Amino acid sequence: MSFDTEGQSVHLRSEEVPGLSSQGSRKWIGAAGAVVMVVALVFGGMTALKMLGGGGAQPEDVFPNSAIVFAKLDLNPSAGQKLAAYRLASSFPKVKDKVSSKETSVKESIFSSVLAGNRSWGLDYKKDVEPWLGDRIGVGVFPAGGADSKPEIALAIAFTDQSAAKAALDKAIANATTQVEMVGYAFADGYVVLSDTTAHATALVQAGKVSPLGLPAWSTYSDDVKSLGSDQIGVAWVDLAAAYKAIPKDQLKNGPLGGLQGTTDPKNATGRFVSGLHVDPSYLELTGRSIELKGAGPLTSTGGVNQTKLMSSLPSDVLGAATATGFGKAAAALYAGLIAGSDTTGLKPMMQRLGLGSATDLETLLGTETGIAVGGTSDQPQFAVRTRSADSAASLALAIKVFAAAPVPGLTVRKLTDPEGILVGTGSDLTAAMSDPSGGRLGADAAFRQVTPDLGQANFAVYVNLSKVLTLVAKDNPKEAASLAPFNALGLTVAGGPEPSYRLRISVR
Fold first, then answer.
1. Model confidence over 454-498: pLDDT tens digits?
2. Is it true that the peptide bond before 419 is cis, omega within 30 degrees of 0?
3. Helix, strand, coil share (%) of the chain residues, nearest 5
4. In this structure, how many other beta carbons lie within 10 angstroms of the beta carbon of residue 2?
5. pTM, to two decimals
6. Which residue among 178, 275, 477, 502 has the highest number of C-beta atoms inside a 10 angstrom radius?
7. How many C-beta neighbours within 10 Å does residue 218 have?
8. Rounded Cα distance, 124 and 162, in Å
9. What does DSSP assign to residue 281?
10. For 275-306, how does the pLDDT look when each residue is reduced to its tens digit (9 = 90+)?
């Protein structure tokens, strides 16, 4: 291991230096998880849709506005989203062959696990579910009702044949043998609402008729979704304060953030968060933003300028990279909040063993801007961390202490100028490229720019060169490599501040 202050190496010895807890709730949470999995399946399923505009009631129109959390998937979206999905899916040879077919692989993958995955219900997807299944599904979490102390979880599933849906669900109820396997249902405006009991499902339907989640007069949900700025085929929405209250207190106390105190404690947060899945002919995109967020304190502030300049200056041939502005200040605030409590994880003594005696040391080490790059090959990966710092000499001294306490073979630590900071890395090729401004930079790469459109406003960014990474992953499997070839790049940008937002984009060639 070597440490370079200004081109001079300092060699050190490398001695080793010392939610919801009921089974029934978990069943429904698993069903909700199936909705989220559509992100991975969307390429196949959207090609099975008729090229007509979406219409009719949405799941939020039958759920009440008391929802704490809501998510939906629309396999019958607007005509623009269908056309975009058609063109995007056509980039994949295997999917393109199925574009005009009647296969509904996404629907079967999701609903088969939700409605036919419980063997005790005795439902067969093709025989009992597919004949009545519609194209939309929503899942909601609602405050506990009556004597029940646990939040209620329900599904709203579109149907095309009410009689067939009733027959299938009556069959499931008749076959259920334990309380955990029980299911109840009620019908409402083209949807069947499923909960753990018929009484709960009926109560939700009745409340939805009085004050539906999707009606602006009763809820901010619709306006929150519109704030995403484009049509969505999938949406997730949460009331932050209500969600925090719904989590069992023992889970909060024993969780990873259970020791936070004061302004960093999540219980102070209010507002909403909304996220959506959008399709473009050349990319698939997830976006999300906080609305009227208050009480989150340092966890949502960056303490730095709203730009991720460092990312654009990294070498263009990296496999992937991540950068953060104000990361040092945010990490220091989080650390101070954690050790102010009981510090059940032993974080403070662990940091002290690494030579970091305070939150200020952590902030100094990580700098005002921090970036990590990955290069090399799958057999010989290379890593490098580059920082920008107001006091690069102090950053270098702390880095030397940390890696003297926890040695890494082949690691180099050096101070850099223009801008001031330090470079920590393994692998001579990558570290040389990181410190040499004459080579190609990410900021000039078209694929990078396409997947990071919000880079100028971001505090945190991630980039993955999928065309290179997936080629390495599938190098021993030519068929798999061919199927992955259309993927081009992945970009994630996150902006902090009073109303944090993010954009995750996956592009194709």
1. 898 888 899 999 999 988 888 778 777 777 888 999 999 998 777
2. yes
3. 40, 25, 35
4. 13
5. 0.78
6. 275
7. 16
8. 17
9. T
10. 999 989 899 999 999 998 887 654 455 444 44
